[in-house]
Amino acid sequence: MSLHAVLPARLSEEIARRKLWPVLPRRRIAPPAGPPVLALSFDLDYQADTDALPALTDLVDAAGAKMTLFAIGKLAQADPAAYADAHARGHEIANHTWSHPDNPVLNPDREFWHLSEDEMADEIARGQDALAAITGTRPVGFRTPHFKDAAPLRAALRRFPEIRYASSSLASRCPAPVPFVPEAAPRHGDQSLNFPSASPAPNDLLMIPLTPCPGVRWSPFSSYLSIRRPANPAKGAGLHDLDKFETLWRRMLDEERPRGFASVYFDPLDVMRDADTVAVFRRMLDHARDAGWHLTTLAEVERLWRPVAAP
Ligand SMILES: [Zn+2]
Prior knowledge:
There is one protein chain. The chain is an alpha/beta fold. The chain has one domain: Alpha-Beta Barrel (TIM Barrel). It has helices at residues 9-17, 47-62, 73-78, 81-88, 117-135, 151-158, 223-227, 242-256, 268-271, 275-290, 298-309; strands at residues 37-44, 68-71, 92-95, 141-142, 165-166, 206-207, 212-213, 216-220, 261-266, 294-296. The longest helix has 19 residues, at 117-135. The model has no long low-confidence stretch (mean pLDDT 91). The structure holds zinc ion. The site of zinc ion has 5 residues, from loops.
């Protein structure tokens, strides 16, 4: 089974660049047996995210869910207790680089997608080492800062055979809106990991794309898009109120359910910021669970979907 769209390469690249795949009919890939899976992930980009982590872990545990925490090595190493506790309670700690180029606090001068392959590999390696020192296991997943993939990333990630998946493509840029094995070689001009391989190998990196927010095909479903404060429409931050956030959540789950898959990320500093927001977020997780979704880690999604993506 190939996930390839039958289109000339340049046309499919243009469709991906403009994030137009969702407006085209896409082939339905039969999901693995079992309930629909919702990959629940959080990006911990600032100390405020680490500070919110103990309460977040309690909330996710109370919802009966598992989550993936994309951790920055440098931040986690400086304040490891909440990461170690989340790991001990069965949540996944995954690699979000060592210093998150271009994090405005940690590494303001570089952008990850402008780094060389060696520099990318160094950011990944230092992140792996720092997180393994906290949890005792090397992460199996990676997410690019700002979801900006670049061609050298494929080669850099290949240096880490323990990394089994990446979660940085936006599903509206992918011909397949479900997990897939990306093409081994970059297309002419294409800088991303958006295209499925025609002949996926069972041990290749799996891309687990992020589900867009309904009606907003340029952004993943996220707290940054909907409720970040201060809001900044020019940066796509904080466009919705809490009611709309919750309404869009239900709509997204309804729309993605037939595929058996969705993947979302939140920032802990957003969803744990005050009692009203925490109450809404708790209702959202409960709604997903009560609607039959299996809320789980990306590592678990990788395990479930790999036989479908690379049979
Ligand atoms: Zn980040």
